[in-house]
Design a protein that fits this description.
The complex is a heterotrimer of chains A (161), B (344) and C (582). By secondary structure, chain A is of the alpha+beta class. Chain A is built from five helices and five strands; from the N terminus they run E-E-H-E-E-E-H-H-H-H. The relative contact order of chain A is 0.16. In chain C, 20% of the residues lie in helices and 19% in strands. The chains are: A alpha+beta (161), B alpha+beta (344), C alpha+beta (582). Chains B and C meet through strand 1, helix 1, helix 2, strand 8 and strand 9 of B and strand 1, strand 8, strand 9, helix 6 and strand 12 of C. The structure holds FE2/S2 (inorganic) cluster (2 copies). The site of one FE2/S2 (inorganic) cluster (FES) has 10 residues of chain A, from loops.
C-alpha cells in the first residue's frame, strides 16, 4: 500500500515519516519514532494511556490517524520536563506518590496538562472530569487527584535531578 | 423509593508467601570504589515498590545513607534466582535475602575500616551518614568512601555480599491437612458505610475505616499506596468486576474497558487507615507485606453493610444492582436492619 | 489518610532505625513521571516482527484439520507456528517445583478445551499483516459437549475437559480428589450447638486488568543466545518455563524485566514468552507478541471463580464450636496455579478464629473456560468474603454485635490452629478494637480489655481427637462421603516440624556487624514429633472458651505412633504431593 509522507513537530523537534493510510499515531510514535512515552493500553480509546496533545488539544493517539498530524505539533510526556527540570505536574506526582506501576502516568500527566492549560484553577470535580478518560488500576486515583490539585495551586518547587 | 444507609465490618488475616515454603530468594550486593552500593536482584517491581523496599532494607543493614544504595532489577544475567513477585512474598522473602547479603558486605566493610583505623572490627559502628567510627569515640572515624577505596586498592578486599532466604518446604498430611506453613500473618479489620438505593439497587460506598497490622511498615508512604489502591480494588471487586456476569454461564462477558466495570476517579470513598506494627519474628525488620490482602476485608464489609442497609444478603459476587433489587423484591421491600456501631 | 498506633506492640519493636520506617521517595518515581521507565514494550529493534495467534472459537472441540496455506502466502507473513513446532508442547507452570503433571499445550494440537485457546501462531512484518493472515487460517473442528459448572464437572459422565486429569479434578497426594483439613469432630460438635448457620457463596471470575497487557519481545543476541524483554512477575519462573518448553539450557536465555505495568497475579503464567522466543529462533529476527485488550480481557487468565459452602455450629454465648467448609476452585481448562491456591486456602481455614472442630474439603475442578491463575489475595480473597459474611450471619443468629462476636472467637497467641501448629504473632483483636474506636462503634468494656497476647493457649492449645476418612479416593467419585475410617487420638501430629529461620530486626533491630543470618538446614527428622509437643493432653471434644472456666484437661493421652514421611534427595514438591512430571 502506498505510504504517505507526514511531517510534524514532536515535543519541539521536526520529525518526518512515511505512514500507511490506516496507521495510528501511537504506533508511529512508539515504533516509528522511538518515543516510548505514550503507552498502549487498549488501542480502543478506552484507557487513556496513549494520551498526547495535538496542537494543545487532548487526543488519544491510538485513535488518531498518523497522517492527520501533518504540520501539527504533537506533545508527549517525553517532552514535558524542560531539560532536567521537571514540569510542576511531574513534581507534584512525585511528591504525592501518585504512581505505582507508572504505566498510566504518562497519559495522566498529559491529560492533567491539558486540563490545567484550559483551566488553571480547577475544582476537585473538574480534575476528576479531566482524568475521567484515564484508567489507573493501582492507585485508587486519590493521590493523582491530589497531585493535580497541588500542581494547580502552584505550591511545588521545581527540582533538578 | 428511598436511599438506605448501612454499616458493615469484616476482620481477616493473611498468610504471607507461598505457605508451604520451599520458595527461595537470592540477592547480591557489591560496592563501587567510592562506597556506593549496588543491589542486584531478579525480583520484579509491578508497582508495589520492590526496588524501594529493598533499597531501604539494604541501606539500613549496611548502615549507609539510602542514596548510596541503588537496586538493579531484574536482569537474569546479573540478578540471582528468585521465585517471583506473587503471594505477597516479595517484601518478606526478598527483604530477608537482601539483609543477609547486606550483612556479609557490611562485615567486609567494617573489617576494612578496622584495618585502616587499626582497631577491632567488633568495636566499630556506622552512623548511617556515610561514616564508620569507634563505638563511643566518634573522632576515630573513617568515611565509607575512604574505606571502600582502601579495601579495593590497598587491601585487596571485595566489599560484597550474597544472601538467600528460604523457608524450608513443608510436607502435608493428606488426611488432616497438617503442615508447617510459614509463620508470618498480617491482620486487618475494616468498617464500610454504604448507601443503597432501593429503586435502582445501586450501592454507593460512603466511607471506610480500617486498621491493618502489617509487621513493620518499611515505607509508610508505599504502605499507604498499597492500602488505598487495594481498597479501591476491593470496592471494584465487591460491586462491579467480573468477566462472567452470569457465571457459570460464560456468555455476555465484557471485552474491553467500556464493558468491564470499575470505579472511576469520581467513585472513590473517603478512607482512613490506621497501621499497627507487630513485627514478624521472621520478617525483614519485622516486615510482613501488605500488597495482597488490602482488598480482602472490603468485599465482605460491603456485603454486610448492604444487608444492614436493606436486609438483603448477597452471597454471590459481584453485588450488582440486579442482585440487590431481586433480593429486595423477594423480601417484599427493603428491610433496614438495626443501626450498627453508632452507624452511618 | 494514614495514621500509626505506635503504642500497640511497642515492646516488641525497636523503632530506632535510620531508613526503615521512613516514607522515602520511590527509586523508580523519576522514571515513571518522565515516561522513561522501561516497560517490556519500550525497546526498539530493527526488523521487529509481530506475532498473533489464532484462537479457538469453541469451548470444547476436537481439531480435525488445520490449513495454513493461504495464510502462508499472505503479504508480510514470515513464519507460521503450529503445535508440532513447539519442542515440548505440554507443560504445567508449577512443574518447575515438581508440583502437578504437565497438562497444557502451548499451541493446541488435537483438541481445544476452552474458547480462546491458541492453535496457530502467525509471525508477520506488521501487526496488521499478522491479523490479516490470521483470518486466512482454516481450522476444522468437531464440537464436543462442554461443562461450565464446577460441581457438574465432578459428576460421573461429565465431559472430560483435560485428558491429563480425566475425572476433572486435580489430584492431591496421588490419593484424593481434593485437599483435606480435619481437626476435631465437627459432627459431634454440631450436635451440641445451639445454632447452625449454613450457606453457599459464589465468587465470579475477576480479570486482573492491568493497564499494560501481557506481552514480550524476544530477539537473537550474540553468542547464540536470546534476549527477552518480559512483563513476567517471576523473572526466573518465566525463564524456566520458556527453557523447558523450548528445550533450551537456561543460560541461552537472557530475561530482562522488572518494570511491569501492573500484574496483580496476571503475569505469572508466561503467556507470551515461549512463543515469542520460538518465533525469534525460527525467523532469526526479533519477535514481539503482545496481547490486545480484548485478548487480555477474555483469554489472559482471570482470578478463578470459587464456590464455597460453610456450616457453623454456634453456642448461645457466641462461641463457634464447629465449622465445616466445602469449596470448589474453578481452574478452567488447565491447572496453572489453582492447585496451589487450594493448598493456601486449606491452610488458611477456618480463618483468624480459634474453633475447636474444623473440617474442610477443597476441590480444584476443571471446566471448559479460560484457565484461571493467581490474583492478589491468592487462594484467600473469595474464602475471606464467604467467611466474613458468614460471621455476620453467625453474630446475628446468636444475637451478638458482629465486632464482639469476632473478638470472642478471634485467635490469640498460643492457640492451636486447625493445621496443628500453634498461633504466634497474632493481632486480630487489636485491629478490631482500633477500628471500633475510630469508627465510633461501641464495644463492651470486656471486649475492649481483650488482647491477642493473653487468654490464648491452655485448653485452646489442645489438638482434639479427630475422626479421619478416606472420602474422595481418586477415581472413586461415589466415595465423596462416607463414615470415618479411624480416629486420630488427641494430640496427634504426623508432620515433622521444619526449622524456621528467625531474623533479627524485630526486637533487635540493628544488625550485628559481620553477622550473617544462620539457618539450620532442613533435615528430615527421624522422630516425627518435636519434644516440645510430645505430651499433648487430650482435648475434650468441644474444647474452647476465650472467657475462663473450662473443664480441666483430662490426663495426657500417649502420642500415636506416627507415620514417617520418607524423603529422597532434594526436598521437592514431588515428595509433598507424590506427583511427578510427565
Ligand atoms: S491505548 Fe489509546 S485509549 Fe487505550
Ligand atoms: S500506577 Fe499503575 S495503572 Fe496507574
Amino acid at each position: 500500500m502506498a505510504k504517505i509522507p507526514v511531517q510534524f513537530r514532536l515535543n519541539g523537534s521536526d520529525r518526518a515519516a512515511f505512514v500507511g493510510p490506516s496507521d495510528n499515531l501511537l504506533t508511529l510514535l512508539r515504533r516509528g519514532l522511538n518515543d516510548f512515552g505514550p503507552k498502549y493500553g487498549c488501542g480502543q480509546g478506552t484507557c487513556g494511556t496513549c494520551t498526547v496533545l495535538v496542537d494543545g488539544d487532548l487526543q488519544l493517539s491510538c485513535l488518531t490517524l498518523a497522517a492527520t498530524c501533518e504540520g501539527k505539533h504533537v506533545e508527549t510526556v517525553s517532552g514535558m520536563a524542560e531539560g532536567p527540570v521537571l514540569h510542576p505536574l511531574q513534581q507534584a506526582f512525585m511528591d504525592h506518590f501518585a504512581a505505582q506501576c507508572g504505566f498510566c502516568t504518562p497519559g495522566m500527566l498529559t491529560a492533567a496538562k491539558a486540563l490545567l492549560a484550559a483551566n488553571p484553577n480547577p475544582t476537585r470535580a473538574e480534575v476528576i472530569d479531566g482524568i475521567s478518560g484515564n484508567i489507573c488500576r493501582c492507585t485508587g486515583y486519590d493521590a493523582i487527584i491530589e497531585a493535580i490539585l497541588a500542581a494547580a495551586r502552584g505550591g511545588q518547587a521545581k527540582r533538578t535531578y | 423509593m428511598a436511599r438506605h444507609r448501612g454499616r458493615g465490618m469484616a476482620s481477616v488475616n493473611y498468610p504471607i508467601g507461598m505457605n508451604l515454603g520451599g520458595d527461595p530468594s537470592q540477592a547480591l550486593i557489591h560496592s563501587n570504589p567510592d562506597g556506593k552500593f549496588t543491589v542486584a536482584l531478579s525480583a520484579i517491581d509491578l508497582g508495589q515498590g520492590m526496588k524501594q523496599v529493598t533499597r531501604q532494607v539494604a541501606a539500613e543493614t549496611l548502615g549507609v545513607p539510602m542514596e548510596d544504595v541503588y537496586v538493579d532489577t531484574a536482569d537474569s544475567d546479573t540478578g540471582p534466582h528468585d521465585m517471583g513477585s506473587f503471594a505477597s512474598r516479595g517484601t518478606h522473602r526478598m527483604g530477608n535475602a537482601v539483609i543477609a547479603a547486606a550483612r556479609e558486605a557490611r562485615g567486609v566493610l567494617l573489617e576494612a575500616a578496622a584495618e585502616e583505623l587499626e582497631v577491632n572490627a567488633g568495636d566499630l559502628v556506622t552512623d548511617g551518614r556515610g561514616n564508620i567510627h569507634v563505638k563511643g569515640a566518634p573522632s576515630r572515624s573513617i568515611t565509607v568512601k575512604a574505606t571502600a577505596q582502601a579495601a579495593q586498592f590497598k587491601q585487596g578486599k571485595t566489599i560484597a555480599g550474597r544472601g538467600i532466604f528460604l523457608i524450608p518446604l513443608s510436607t502435608v498430611d493428606p488426611q488432616t491437612g497438617e503442615l508447617n506453613p510459614n509463620t508470618a500473618f498480617a491482620h486487618a479489620c475494616l468498617v464500610a458505610d454504604v448507601e443503597v438505593d432501593d429503586e435502582t439497587g445501586e450501592v454507593t460506598v460512603l466511607k471506610m475505616a480500617s486498621a491493618y497490622e502489617l509487621g513493620r511498615a518499611i515505607n509508610p508512604k508505599m504502605v499507604e499506596q498499597q492500602l488505598v489502591g487495594g481498597a479501591w480494588m476491593g470496592i471494584s471487586h465487591a460491586l462491579y468486576e467480573t468477566p462472567e456476569p452470569y457465571y457459570p454461564d460464560p456468555s455476555h462477558g465484557p471485552r474491553d474497558f467500556n464493558e468491564y466495570l470499575m470505579p472511576g476517579p469520581g467513585d472513590t470513598a473517603p478512607y482512613s487507615v490506621t497501621i499497627l506494627e507487630r513485627p514478624a519474628p521472621d520478617g525483614p525488620f519485622g516486615g510482613k507485606g501488605p500488597g495482597e490482602m488490602c482488598a480482602n476485608p472490603v468485599l465482605p464489609a460491603i456485603a454486610n453493610a448492604v444487608y444492614n442497609a436493606v436486609g438483603v444478603r448477597v452471597n454471590d459476587l459481584p453485588i450488582t444492582p440486579e442482585k440487590v433489587l431481586r433480593g429486595i423484591k423477594a423480601n417484599g421491600g427493603a428491610r433496614p436492619q438495626p443501626r450498627r456501631g453508632g452507624g452511618g | 489518610m494514614l495514621e500509626f498506633r505506635k503504642d500497640l506492640f511497642a515492646a516488641e519493636r525497636d523503632d530506632n532505625l535510620n531508613i526503615v520506617g521512613k516514607g522515602a521517595q520511590r527509586q523508580d518515581m523519576p522514571g515513571h513521571v518522565t515516561g522513561r521507565s522501561p516497560f517490556f514494550d519500550d525497546h526498539a529493534f530493527e526488523g521487529l516482527l509481530h506475532l498473533k495467534v489464532v484462537r479457538s472459537p469453541h469451548h470444547h472441540a476436537r481439531i480435525r484439520a488445520i490449513d495454513t496455506t493461504a495464510a502462508e502466502r499472505a503479504p508480510g507473513v514470515k513464519r507460521i507456528l503450529r503445535g508440532a513446532d513447539v519442542p515440548l508442547n505440554k507443560n504445567t507452570l508449577l512443574s518447575l517445583i515438581n508440583f502437578g503433571k504437565d497438562d497444557e499445550p502451548t499451541l493446541a494440537v488435537s483438541k481445544v478445551s476452552y474458547k480462546g485457546e491458541p492453535v496457530v501462531a502467525i509471525i508477520a512484518e506488521t501487526e496488521q499483516q499478522a491479523l490479516a493472515a490470521r483470518a486466512l487460517v482454516r481450522v476444522d473442528y468437531d464440537v464436543l459437549p462442554h461443562v461450565f459448572d464446577v460441581e457438574e464437572a465432578l459428576k460421573p459422565g461429565a465431559p472430560v475437559v483435560n485428558e491429563t486429569y480425566p475425572n476433572n479434578y486435580f489430584e492431591y497426594h496421588d490419593r484424593y480428589d481434593h485437599s483435606k483439613l480435619r481437626f476435631g469432630d465437627v459432627d459431634r460438635a454440631f450436635a451440641t450447638a445451639d445454632f447452625i448457620v449454613d450457606d453457599r457463596y459464589q465468587m465470579s471470575p475477576i480479570e486482573h486488568a492491568p493497564t499494560e497487557t501481557n506481552g514480550s519481545i524476544a530477539a537473537p543476541e550474540q553468542n547464540d543466545r536470546f534476549v527477552v524483554h518480559s512483563c513476567a512477575q517471576g523473572l526466573f519462573f518465566s525463564l524456566g518455563t520458556a527453557a523447558k518448553i523450548l528445550k533450551l539450557e537456561s543460560n541461552r536465555l537472557h530475561f530482562i524485566g522488572g518494570t511491569v505495568g501492573g500484574g496483580f497475579g496476571g503475569k505469572v503464567d508466561s503467556l507470551t514468552e515461549p512463543l515469542s522466543i520460538l518465533g525469534a529462533m525460527m525467523t532469526g529476527q526479533p519477535v514481539r507478541y503482545v496481547l490486545d485488550r480484548e485478548e487480555e480481557m477474555l483469554y489472559g487468565s482471570p482470578r478463578g471463580a470459587e464456590r464455597i459452602y460453610i456450616k457453623d455450629g454456634i453456642l448461645r454465648d457466641g462461641r463457634i464450636v464447629a465449622r465445616r467448609i466445602r469449596s470448589y476452585f474453578d481452574a478452567g481448562a488447565y491447572t496453572r496455579l489453582s492447585s496451589y491456591a487450594a493448598i493456601k486456602c486449606t491452610a488458611h481455614l477456618p480463618g483468624p478464629y480459634t474453633i475447636p472442630n474444623v473440617s474442610a474439603d477443597i476441590y480444584v475442578a476443571y471446566t471448559n473456560r479460560c484457565p484461571s491463575t493467581a490474583m492478589r489475595g491468592f487462594g484467600i480473597t473469595a474464602v475471606d468474603f464467604a467467611l466474613e459474611v458468614h460471621m455476620d450471619k453467625g453474630a446475628e443468629a446468636c444475637g451478638m454485635d458482629p465486632m464482639e462476636f469476632r473478638i470472642l472467637n478471634a485467635y490469640r497467641d498460643e492457640d492451636m490452629k486447625a493445621h496443628r501448629r500453634v498461633a504466634k504473632n497474632t493481632a486480630l483483636i487489636e485491629c478490631v478494637q482500633v477500628v471500633a474506636e475510630k469508627a465510633g462503634w461501641p464495644l463492651s468494656d470486656e471486649a475492649r480489655r481483650q488482647s491477642s497476647l493473653t487468654g490464648g493457649g491452655g485448653a485452646r492449645a489442645l489438638i482434639p481427637a479427630t475422626p479421619i476418612d478416606d472420602n474422595g479416593r481418586i477415581g472413586r467419585p461415589e466415595t465423596r462421603t462416607g463414615p470415618a475410617t479411624e480416629t486420630l487420638p488427641a494430640g496427634a501430629m504426623r508432620i515433622p516440624m521444619t526449622k524456621q529461620p528467625i531474623m533479627e530486626g524485630s526486637a533487635e533491630a540493628r544488625p550485628t556487624p559481620a553477622a550473617v543470618p544462620q539457618y539450620e538446614p532442613y533435615r528430615p527428622t527421624p522422630a516425627s514429633m518435636p519434644p516440645a509437643y510430645q505430651p499433648m493432653p487430650a482435648a475434650p471434644p468441644p474444647a474452647m472458651p476465650p472467657t475462663a472456666a473450662t473443664a480441666p484437661p483430662p490426663a495426657a493421652a500417649p502420642a500415636p505412633a506416627p507415620a514417617q514421611p520418607t524423603q529422597h534427595g532434594a526436598v521437592r514438591f514431588s515428595s509433598v504431593f507424590g506427583t511427578r512430571r510427565r
